[in-house]
């Protein structure tokens, strides 16, 4: 099976995974790594960052999801992404607990879960066309997942300028400084990236 994000409705993979197909489960979880990676990137806890890198957080979340998949009772993509966010919040809370040598903090876990849910809703609203086409309105996939997959397929500089400018809402001057570019060059890069991202999003939506 391909390691690339699923381009179509994942329901068949979900059903096969729930029936015990390990290959389908592996492909399914691999398909959501771009989504989990983007959520990890948007976390704000600096103490957590020092304890657990974004890639480690995604890896630990994926391993826990694979281990505990028999407990998943959903059948749809929204149910799956909500479950993955809960797992990521639990993994992150455990990392903070270990860092501070504390017992499990249910309140912190809920805070982290709320933050991840908020980040996912932010992705749903990000870079929305003012007048979506009928095909966009009828799409069955979660837009946050499609956006993460599309960003994953962009060149690195396109992805970086969009994440910093649109999702982290950094000022253009700060983005330019972080990318080592002039403000004018960064503005042009951002404009090209938006066009390319929307093309990829439209392509995904039409094939879903």
Give the helix/strand layout:
Elements: H1 11-18, H2 22-31, H3 33-41, H4 46-51, H5 54-67, H6 77-100, H7 106-125, H8 134-137, H9 143-153, H10 156-167, H11 172-179, H12 183-207
Helix pairs in contact: 1-2, 3-5, 3-9, 5-6, 6-7, 7-9, 9-12, 10-12, 11-12
Beta-strand proportion: under 5%
What level of helicity do the residues show? over 70%
- How many distinct beta strands? 0
CATH architecture of the largest domain: Orthogonal Bundle
The number of helical elements comes to 12
CATH topology of the largest domain: Rna Polymerase Sigma Factor, Chain: A
Question: What letter string, H or E per element, gives the SSE order?
Answer: HHHHHHHHHHHH
CATH class type of the largest domain: Mainly Alpha
Distance between the termini: 18 Å
> Nearest-angstrom radius of gyration?
18 Å
Structural domain count: 2
Structural class assignment: mainly alpha
Question: What is the global morphology?
Answer: globular
The largest sheet is:
none
What value does the average pLDDT take?
83
